[in-house]
Amino acid sequence: IQPGLLDEQLQPLKQRIQKILALRPMGGGEVDKRVRILRMAARSVDNLIFQSVASAAIQRVRLALHYHGRERGDVTQRIVSPQRLVHYRDNWYLDAWCHQREALRSFALDRISSAQSRQVVALDVDTDELEDHYTRAYGIFSGEVTETAVLRFTSHRARWVADEAWHPEQQGHFLDDGSYELRIPYSDPRELMMDVMKYGADVEVVAPQALRSAVSAALTTAAAQYK
């Protein structure tokens, strides 16, 4: 998925697998020709940054980061205890304990300009606490769940959405008219709004009213650009 971390350790295994495949019907380079993996909206990560961060996470040492936040554009210096790497929607993130903020934070690896090991033992956060903080809310955004989105998809789109996993704790069911109602817990609405709006006229936000109004306003603004 990402080069640089275990290349040296995996090279003998890779050579062995290639020898085995050469003796089988899947040999002769056919796998490379017949399997296609598409990445979408992936952002480039410097291999040295990735290796430094991944090594620190595995070796359990703290990192000194220079981080350029995308939303506000500010550059900060952080001392963090890396907890785990996350590969999400074709991009890499670091879940870490930030010693300045004294709280869990997520860092996009493509926004890290420098990552230096401090050779100080990392603070370990309990696995249950990590799961509770990072997986209950929607998407990449963490934190305590504060709302539940109620989404209603048209009967046409229902055939796709009913088979999709949006969230581990989602609830969904078909309605009498063939439409599909999906309930999703969330805290920060930004990523959820993007996923909802890509369905256009095939989805309606039923509740909560704040999310319904935000999506309506965003769609109205978008439509105005085509007038």
In short:
The protein has 227 residues and is of the alpha+beta class. It contains seven helices and nine strands, in the order αααβββββαβαββαβα.
Q: How would you state the average pLDDT, rounded?
A: 90
Low-confidence stretches: none
Approximately what portion of the residues adopt beta-strand conformation? 25-35%
End-to-end separation:
43 Å
What is the CA-based Rg, rounded?
22 Å
Write the layout of secondary structure elements.
Elements: H1 7-22, H2 30-34, H3 47-59, E1 61-68, E2 75-88, E3 91-98, E4 103-108, E5 112-121, H4 127-134, E6 147-153, H5 155-161, E7 171-174, E8 180-186, H6 190-197, E9 203-207, H7 209-224
Antiparallel strand pairs: 1-2, 1-5, 2-3, 3-4, 6-8, 6-9, 7-8
For this entry, give a set of tags.
about 230 residues; alpha+beta; 5-stranded antiparallel sheet; 4-stranded antiparallel sheet; about 30% helix
How does this structure look, described?
- By secondary structure, the chain is α+β, with helices and mostly antiparallel strands.
- Helices cover 32% and strands 30% of the residues.
- It has a five-stranded antiparallel beta sheet. The chain has a four-stranded antiparallel beta sheet with strand order 7-8-6-9.
- A hairpin with a 2-residue loop joins strand 2 and strand 3.
- It is globular.
- The two termini are 43 Å apart.
